[in-house]
Amino acid sequence: MSATSTSGQAGAGQSLAQALKQRSRAAAFPAQVALGLLVLLWGLGASHYTGFASLQVLLNLLIDNAYLLVLAVGMSLVILSGGIDLSVGSVLALSTMVAAWLLQVAQWPPLAVVAAVLLMGAGFGALMGGLIHGFGLQPFIVTLGGMFLARGLCYLISINSITIEDPLFVALSQTQIPVLGGFISPGALIALLLLALGIALAHWSAFGRTVYALGGNEQSALMMGLNVGRAKVLIYSCSGFCAALAGLLFAFYMLSGYGLHAQGAELDAIAAVVIGGTVLSGGYGYVAGALSGVLVLGLIQTLIAFDGSLSSWWTKIVIGALLFVFCVVQRLLSRRAAS
Amino acid sequence: MSGVDLTQPLRRKRVRAPAPSPAQQPWQRLRHWAGRHALLQPLAALALLLLVAGISVPGFFALELKDGHLYGSLIDILNRAAPLMLAAMGLTLVIATRGIDVSVGAVVAIAGTVAATLVLAQAPLWQALCAALGAALVCGVWNGLLVAGLGLQPIIATLILMVAGRGLAQLCADGQILTVYSPASFFVLGGGYLLGLPVALFVVAAVFIATQLLLRRTALGLFIQAVGINPVAARLAGLRTTALIFLAYVFCSLCAGLAGLMIASNIKSADANNAGLLLELDAILAVTLGGGSLAGGRFSLAGSLVGALIIQTLSYTIYSLGVPPEVNMVVKAIVVFAVCISQSTAFRSKGQP
């Protein structure tokens, strides 16, 4: 925030343009760091562990983290607009639960279930967006309430896990699509398609420009005549939709609905977005960064799994350390750009 | 947001000057009256909740003396709410400076694990307790440096510790749940009794009184409020805002560390994975329920304590009614939404002509 005001004080048009250019370079830099880190981690694994360098290991990254990629795309939009969505992990769990219940107990046809779950997610997000805009509330606290609500609703449906036996869901979980000698799952393909859609939406549509404008400065966006209210509701309903889609992918992957699914996934999604180079105060970054962020997180997990001697909690420590490094780099760069 | 808090006292003064005209609705008059007593709303909510619990749970208000200890639902609620009350007090100051600390749960886990590890390694109890509080202090210094020193957004700065902290606690405990069997003095903090009342309550009362004295008898409370209302103006007025914000985070982590010791002592074990899970969210809810503003500048330590009691009473009632405890989350969510909406400017300006 202070960076924006100082770049405004820069005064003369030329220096303002320079400051803006430098700030966008500051945003691009962490994105490049993420790519470099990705290559470094992969090289580290390939040189230390046999079998790491195969294509299938990379494709497995996509298969195992398809749901996280979808969450991160939604989270990117929210963070680019200067907000935050803490409810995505819970909405994911609620989606698996609703899908499982509708399929197994209510015996709905699978396509109707998919449509209903996606609609529910978008509606849940729109409701939160409406509260945030309508009452001028902080996104943090509203989505915190949403997080409690969605988890609680899971348990209202059932306290136990519900196994999904629907033939379409089972088929989707077992299908292997051949790619360059390896294979990926339909879920991973859907996630990549959504990523492409997210990139197109953010960078080549009026809605995307509004998102960036909102993240840059909400007051200015309002004065420019942008429909801030509609954009906010749309942003959060996009995030809710992504969370519901992630829930479906998770249901394909796990073939069950459970209220304890994906606990803390919202933190992973935020971490992926930050590592992917999106600036947390909003306005700067790329949706594509979600992919590199998710892959970095996935690679760390794969490395720890390949090593075998390291315990699972090292994942948390390394992710925390990475978050720290990226936040500090972002902060220092934006400070330098401002001064 | 700062504009709201700045106009708040002004608007109240304007309302207070003319006597309420007879044409005013009675509920409006009540509202003005309630507006002047900040603690009244949370206390009324607690009283209402206790009334509902008293009607629906038989023997809710019964207290009995067994072996010199007081037993009863009310004592139980107070005892179980103690860690939450500590965490909420720490968070009150952080939130008052416009910050947030989501690492409270992780610090609880770290403090509990450090204490349990040392006790299991046959270290003297005082060393274990000091080391645990020391670890919490380090966490607070880390958070404070990131927020006040580097100027990171509070939620992200503390998110780092929230993610890594549990990993560190697990590393310290080697992924095991550490169960403590001796010495018996380890269990005093969370399970002991003094003068018939749980020791935990005395600890909470001591922290509360010390903090309240520090805030009200010195200018510290005013300074913190000034930082929350407008950090830039506070800095220009000569306040050392960086130091104040730093201290708020250190205090918050220390409170969380004490809460962690209390939880470990109460359950006689340290679980790095689950101790204090989601405690930060409950504590934030407690602060909001107690009338603290998430936008900073308006806070009440006593209110936060009442907020924590409201949450614990709610859980207790839901448990005793035989409703599945998971429903608790739905109720909490509805409470969060209701409180936020009633605190929002859009809602307030609709009610007041």
Walk me through this protein's architecture:
The complex is a heterodimer of chains A (339) and B (353). The longest helix of chain A has 36 residues. By secondary structure, chain A is mainly alpha-helical. The N terminus of chain A is likely disordered. Chain A is 76% helix and 3% strand. In chain A, helix 9 runs antiparallel to helix 12. Chain A contains 15 helices and four strands. Chain A is globular. A two-stranded antiparallel ribbon of chain A has the order 1-4. Chain B is globular, with a radius of gyration of 21 Å. In chain B, helix 4 packs across helix 13. In chain B, a hairpin with a 2-residue loop joins strand 4 and strand 5. With 353 residues, chain B is mainly alpha-helical. Chain B has a two-stranded antiparallel sheet. Chain B has a two-stranded antiparallel sheet with strand order 3-6. Chain B has a two-stranded antiparallel sheet with strand order 4-5. Chain B has one domain: ABC transporter involved in vitamin B12 uptake, BtuC, CATH 1.10.3470. Chains A and B meet through helix 7, helix 13 and helix 15 of A and helix 7, helix 13, helix 15 and helix 16 of B.
